[in-house]
Amino acid sequence: MNRSYWDRISKDYQHEVLSVYDNDLHGTVEEKIAAAALAYPEGRAADLGCGIGRFIPSLADTFNEVEACDYTRVGLKKAKSRCRSRRNVRFHQVDLVRDCVPFESVECALCVNVLIMPSLDKRMRAWRAVSNQVAAGGTLLLVVPSYESAQMEFFRAVESRGEKRRRDTKKRG
Ligand SMILES: C[S@@+](CC[C@H](N)C(=O)[O-])C[C@H]1O[C@@H](n2cnc3c(N)ncnc32)[C@H](O)[C@@H]1O
Q1: What is the pTM of this model?
Q2: Distance (Å, whole) CA 147 – CA 93
Q3: Chain-wide mean pLDDT for the chain?
Q4: How crowded is residue 155: how many other Cβ atoms within 10 Å of its Cβ?
């Protein structure tokens, strides 16, 4: 799961990723964004690991300024195109594990399914970068995969390995 992995995934994001934006059946994230915008009327927001920018329009509609960052060039290009009419969004190519984030901390930081890198060390570095971007008294809207989805992934991997073994055994006759 490195930058080129996410560049590849971002080319066909809709089919490759279970999008939180599309599967947030109760609109929980949008609701939290709206509540944060009410709490900080002059506030700024950031989408940390914005991907192809699905949540940026909601942030741009409710906050004065939005900083959006990701390290995939492909994702950022799509995010920019989605938001081309928005004058209050700035984009940054940033690796949250390695780089300094090039903007001030914000009142509302959104980070959806980004802290999923297998390496604990990298996850902790990215977590530090994300939490440092929240201004004192601000809000962090953090979405991470549930334990159930991790379990489902595991069972799917086991199933597909079983399938492969069955196919190989059949081939060998
Ligand atoms: C599952 S996608 C989620 C994208 C977006 N937050 C959304 O909900 O549509 C994970 C995103 O995290 C980004 N990402 C992963 N590791 C990163 C890192 N070290 N620095 C910056 N972005 C990273 C990927 O490029 C990808 O766009």
Answers
A1: 0.87
A2: 30
A3: 92
A4: 9
Measure 112 CA to ligand 1 centroid, in angstroms: 8
Interval between CA 50 and ligand 1 midpoint (Å): 6
Give 139 or 157, the one with higher predicted confidence. Answer: 139
Give the start-to-end residue ranges of the domains of the chain: 3-147
pLDDT tens-digit readout, 23-70: 899 999 999 999 999 999 899 999 999 999 999 999 999 999 999 999
CATH architecture type of domain 3-147 = 3-Layer(aba) Sandwich (3.40)
- What residues contact residue 10 under an 8 Å CB cut-off, 6+ apart? 51, 52, 72, 74, 75, 78
Q: CA-to-CA distance for 13 and 17, rounded, in angstroms? A: 6
How far, in Å, from the CA of 163 to the mean position of ligand 1? 31
Is residue 54 within 6 Å of ligand 1 at its C-beta?
yes
